[in-house]
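Lab meeting, item 3. Inverse folding demo.
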C-alpha cells in the first residue's frame, strides 16, 4: 500500500520536525524581543545640561530684596561657600545683578538635609548661570536652545501699532523694530487710523515661547496712502535697509529724539505758556515722556553747549554742520561724558527726560535750526545717506522683488479678509 511506504512516512515526520523548529525559532526571537523591551534603558530627564533624576528639584523666582545668600542659606549652604561662589563668579556673572522676578532652579540632595548642589539663575529667557557645588565650586554660563522662525505679519492700524500686533497674537516688540527702521522717514507720532503695514521677519523662540524679534527682512508701512518699502541688504562691509530704488532708509536726522512718547506741544508762532500765563512763540516740539527716558542725538555732530539755564533747565545743543543745529531742553541730567566739545553720533544717548527749567512736567523740548533760523523739523525733507552701490543693484533688485511679492500678497489677503 502507498500509505505504508517507509519513504512517505519519513517525509511526513521530517515535515513535522521542520515546522516545529520554525515555530520554536519564532518563539525564541519573540522572547528575545520581549526581553529587550523589558530591559530598555529608562529615559533620562535633563535640565540645564544636568541629569535631574537623582535630585530634588526646586523652582522659584527671586523675591524683592532677596540675594544669593538668602536663597542658598535656606538650603543648608554655609556663608563661606556662598562667599567662594560669589568670588568664583566675578568673571562670569556679578551676583549683585540678580534681579527681582527672575526664575531660578535649585538641585538639592534627596537625603534628609535637602542640601543645594546646584543653583541655576536665569539671567534672561535664553541664558542662565550655573553655580555648581557638586565637586568643588564651579560657575559657568549656559544657553537654552533658540529656534528661529521666519514669520509674516500685516495689519491695519485702528488705534496703535502695539494694539494691532497684540490683537493678532504677534510679539509687540515688532513695533519697536519697525520704528527703528523707519525712524528717519516716518513720524510715528503722527500715525493715522487706516495706515497699514506688512512685514517679513525672524522671531526667536525658547521652549515654545517667543523671546524676541530677530532680523526684519522686508517691510512696507503704508502711511497716509503712501507705500514705504524697506528691504534688508548687505554687501562688502555695508548692511542696512534700502527702499525699492536702492536708496538708504537712513537719513541725516532722526524724526524724534525719544522713542514712543507723545507730542504734547508742537511748533507754533503763538502758544499760551502754562507757566508764564501769556501767549508767545513756541519754536520747538515738546515730546512728553516718563522721567529718565533716554534722549538721543538725532544726527552726528559736536556738542557746543551742555549746561543749565533758568528757562531751559539742563540742555544740550549740537552743531551738525554749517546748516543744521539741534537743541534738547529740560533734561533731568546729562548722559555720562556729554560736555562741550564732545563729538556724538546719531542715536547716542546725550541725556534723560526731566522737567528742569520752565516745565510743568517731564518732557524734552526739541528745537531745530536751519541756516540760523528755528524751523519745524517735521516739515523738513532730508536726503538719504549712501545708496546701494551700482554694481550690486541687479542683485538687490532681484532679492527685493521676491520679498516685495511676499509683502504684497500677505497684506492683500489681510485687507480682503
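The presenter then showed the designed sequence:
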Amino acid at each position: 500500500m502507498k500509505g505504508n511506504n517507509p519513504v512517505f512516512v519519513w517525509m511526513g515526520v521530517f515535515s513535522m520536525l521542520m515546522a516545529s523548529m520554525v515555530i520554536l525559532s519564532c518563539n525564541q526571537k519573540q522572547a528575545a524581543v520581549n526581553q529587550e523591551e523589558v530591559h530598555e534603558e529608562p529615559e533620562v530627564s535633563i535640565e540645564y545640561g544636568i541629569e535631574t533624576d537623582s535630585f530634588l528639584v526646586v523652582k522659584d523666582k527671586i523675591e524683592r530684596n532677596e540675594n544669593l545668600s538668602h536663597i542658598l542659606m535656606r538650603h543648608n549652604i554655609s556663608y563661606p561657600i556662598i562667599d567662594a561662589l560669589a568670588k568664583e563668579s566675578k568673571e562670569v556673572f556679578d551676583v549683585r545683578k540678580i534681579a527681582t522676578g527672575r526664575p531660578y532652579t535649585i538641585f538639592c540632595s534627596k537625603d534628609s538635609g535637602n542640601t543645594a548642589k546646584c543653583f541655576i539663575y536665569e539671567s534672561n529667557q535664553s541664558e542662565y548661570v550655573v553655580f555648581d557645588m557638586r565637586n568643588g565650586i564651579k560657575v559657568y554660563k549656559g544657553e537654552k536652545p533658540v529656534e528661529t522662525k521666519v514669520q509674516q505679519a500685516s495689519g491695519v492700524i485702528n488705534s496703535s501699532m502695539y494694539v494691532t500686533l497684540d490683537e493678532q497674537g504677534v510679539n509687540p516688540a515688532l513695533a519697536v523694530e519697525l520704528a527703528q527702521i523707519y525712524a528717519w522717514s516716518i513720524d510715528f507720532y503722527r500715525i493715522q487710523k487706516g495706515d497699514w503695514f506688512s512685514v517679513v521677519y525672524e522671531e526667536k523662540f525658547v521652549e515654545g515661547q517667543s523671546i524676541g524679534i530677530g532680523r526684519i527682512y522686508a517691510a512696507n508701512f503704508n502711511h497716509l496712502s503712501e507705500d514705504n518699502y524697506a528691504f534688508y541688504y548687505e554687501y562688502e562691509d555695508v548692511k542696512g535697509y534700502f527702499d525699492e530704488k536702492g536708496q538708504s532708509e537712513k537719513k541725516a536726522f532722526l524724526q524724534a529724539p525719544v522713542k514712543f512718547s507723545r507730542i504734547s506741544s508742537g511748533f507754533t508762532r503763538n502758544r499760551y505758556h502754562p507757566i508764564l500765563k501769556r501767549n508767545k512763540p513756541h519754536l520747538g516740539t515738546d515730546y512728553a515722556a516718563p522721567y529718565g527716558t533716554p534722549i538721543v542725538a538725532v544726527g552726528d555732530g559736536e556738542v557746543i553747549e551742555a549746561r543749565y539755564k533758568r528757562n531751559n533747565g539742563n540742555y544740550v545743543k549740537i552743531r551738525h554742520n554749517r546748516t543744521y543745529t539741534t537743541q534738547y531742553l529740560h533734561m533731568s541730567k546729562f548722559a555720562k561724558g556729554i560736555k562741550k566739545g564732545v563729538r556724538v553720533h546719531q542715536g547716542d544717548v546725550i541725556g534723560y527726560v526731566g522737567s528742569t527749567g520752565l516745565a510743568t512736567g517731564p518732557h524734552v523740548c526739541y528745537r531745530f535750526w536751519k541756516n540760523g533760523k528755528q524751523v519745524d523739523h517735521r516739515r523738513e525733507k532730508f536726503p538719504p545717506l549712501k545708496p546701494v552701490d551700482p554694481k550690486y543693484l541687479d542683485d538687490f533688485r532681484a532679492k527685493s522683488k521676491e520679498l516685495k511679492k511676499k509683502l504684497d500678497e500677505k497684506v492683500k489677503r489681510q485687507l480682503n479678509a
